[in-house]
Fold this sequence. Notes:
The chain is α+β, with helices and mostly antiparallel strands.
Amino acid sequence: xxxxxxxxxxxxxxxxxxxxxIITILVIAILVxxxxxxxxxxxxxxxxxxxxxxxxxxxxxxxxxxxGSSDFGPVIAEYxxxxxxxxxxxxxxWYYRRFLITDNPVVIEIVSFDAQxxxxxxxxxxxxxxxxLLTIPVADFVAGQQELDNFSQQQVSVxxxxxxxxxxxxxxxxxxxxxxxxxxxxxxxxITYTIGTQEASDPQIAATFEAMLLTFDLR
Length: 219
């Protein structure tokens, strides 16, 4: 009896407390992962995704709007940003989708254009040609492009606004290894706009990019 009375009182172990903390963190992490995969992060309302209208030849736009690109086609659809920040024309048979980015402090949103239907998750594909809104200055965006092989930049104008055009080739071992990437970047009201393609080595994509760039209208 005396031995039992002399035994020290057993207090909750710090390790047990740590164990509970670890379990709590794991539960939160699992919930976050489940939310990441099952909450539609990239999908948007129907008016922010779709395909160019299938209009008849009688409704074709004027030849001057075609910009002379056979790939762009004589029939052109127009995408107007839902906040009326800009508009841009694209091939009527192409698809578009607007992604609001919530897990990247640099990227605000991406509007993607592609000849194929676009997935709801931009991590799977951002399309052949896309417009981004960024939180970083143009200078920082351009600096990030300088890691590309054969990098070059030049001053250009987009919708009457001074811009910088960058071109480079993705290095070996990267997702788009050997592909030429082209971006045009400019700022307005504290937001950096970029219009780009990561597949400029494809002549048809390059021609469509140039045609779409000429139709970009900053509001």
